[in-house]
Amino acid sequence: MYGEEKTPAAAVASGQRGKVKVYERILELLEAEGINAVFGIPDPNFVHLFVEAEKRGWTVVTPHHELSAGFMAEGYARMTGRPALCIATLGPGIALTSGSMMTSLVENTPVIYLGGQRARITERRVRRGRIQFIQQEPLFANSVKWSTSIEYAEQTDEIIRHALRVCQSGTPGPVYIEYPSHVIQQELDVPPALPPSSYRLVEPSADGLAVAKAAELIRNAECPVLLVGHAVQCTRAGQKVKELAELMGCPILQTSGGTAFIEGVEDRTFPYLFSDVGDEIVAKSDVVVAIGTEIGEPVHYGRGHLWANGKTDRKWIYVELDPEAIGQNRAIDVPLVGDLRTVVPQLSAALKGNPRKEHPDLKRWIKEDAERLAALANQDFKTDSGRVHTGQWVIEATKAMPKNAIHARDGGCTVIFTWTYLQAKPHDVVWNQNFGCLGTGLGYAIGASIADGGKRPVLLTTSDSSFLYHTSDLEVAHRFNLPLVVVVAVDNSWGLEVGVYKRTFGHGNSTEPGVHWSKDVRFDQIAKGLGCEGMYVEKGEDLGAAVTAAFASGKPTVIHVPIDPVVNHGGNQNLDTPNYARFRTWYAEGTQ
């Protein structure tokens, strides 16, 4: 089954080894890190690698666009806690992939991009009119943490190992390795691949004195809180953070990028910025333990907006792998520099002898937030057009989401509505927070499901504008028979941009050029044409049953839901998008 650990079929004992090809060695080195999937479209540079990967039991995933391959790799990495491998052919292939490099960089996702290139005898000629050729490496250097080329076969081990080192050290991110065709068939006489601990620092711990100081601050606090970002999910460290939260007796605040709930502490977890309970918790907090977050603009750098109220002299403890991040966005009282998978248990161990009692307001906060969600679901969702209200679209789709489902998100207005109306508490969420890149959702959903081995259901909630980017990859979902249900909110426009026109020029004062398209697009029918199932749901109250039936079918399914375009972009005066004014405060410097 794809997504599971496998023993490489080609692995041999040290005494029986002969020479190995460069492409075989690359796979061996990646296998030592637990990587066993490759995303990309093969060509002469990579057909040998793909054949060998398949022989070794790897999952080989070929999408229908190189950009989508990068998104799939990113979704895979987020679900495994390990780097992912994305390949692309020379010239146009790697050029089309480059957008996902930038996404991986801004989203802090460790993806190894392996790009084909002409043999150096051709690449270094002074010639014009070469086929499928550009000078690739300089173009991508600023889009990755490290960029290099395998110039000589003997460099393979050091380059791949350093790529693995760089993409997982400090702030995680992508690397680019050029793979010229003249080294593909070269052979190496090398020993078996070394374990990761022999060539890189694996899950470093924090300074003991700093841990003791942090524990003392927590013990003496009146209202300590955990501020949890998406790296907790990406490192698969949820249960370690759960133990810490229980020892602290505290609430958990989610950043907007870290919206996955930790199993066992769902009820004490609240959204930062998008709930009254969250506002109160911030105001009362006197010690904040930030884990797996950049403390960036969406949380107002831990200084502005909500943090400017209440106990503004609160102390900050920051669990962070990258020492250069300490103090950049705000002053940190106790930096715990190290891998959160190691540091969080260190902090828990320091608190175990004297755990805190639950905060006296915790049960009330849990009750009030549950009441907030129930009230949202019970409001009147009638629209003038008769089409589905975006809030009801979110509620009905997420109420029907299986408890163990992976939730992928994509879109503009629909994501803003999701922050407010979400009814589920998924343990895994993949979406594009920092870069704000549309069109990632289907690739993220497929990559996450591949990483999961197709065991858990996956719900992708997306808008038509986002889904149109890569609809062809529904064929990939069909090919792997993934348990994927896509619920598409269709307003036949770039909804968020319609709102921008209205805010800029006033309602009715512009033709809103370029943001409206044909109302004849039918995503349910497109899905059927690509081998999946399709459903068309016109009434919001029918959506939950459709989602349940789609998951029960066991087949990848797309549900087309016409939504009200006026509601979706916030009404004619842009007053009705939920929490939109709060969302705009993310742009903390006031420049947008």
Automatic annotation (TrEMBL):
Cofactor(s), names only, from the UniProt record: thiamine diphosphate
Alphabetized CDD domains for the sequence: TPP_PYR_POX_like
Gene Ontology cellular component list: acetolactate synthase complex
Keywords: Thiamine pyrophosphate
GO molecular function, one term: magnesium ion binding
Thiamine pyrophosphate enzyme central domain residues: 211-347
Top-rank lineage group of the source organism: Bacteria
Family from the record: Belongs to the TPP enzyme family.
Protein name: Thiamine pyrophosphate-binding protein
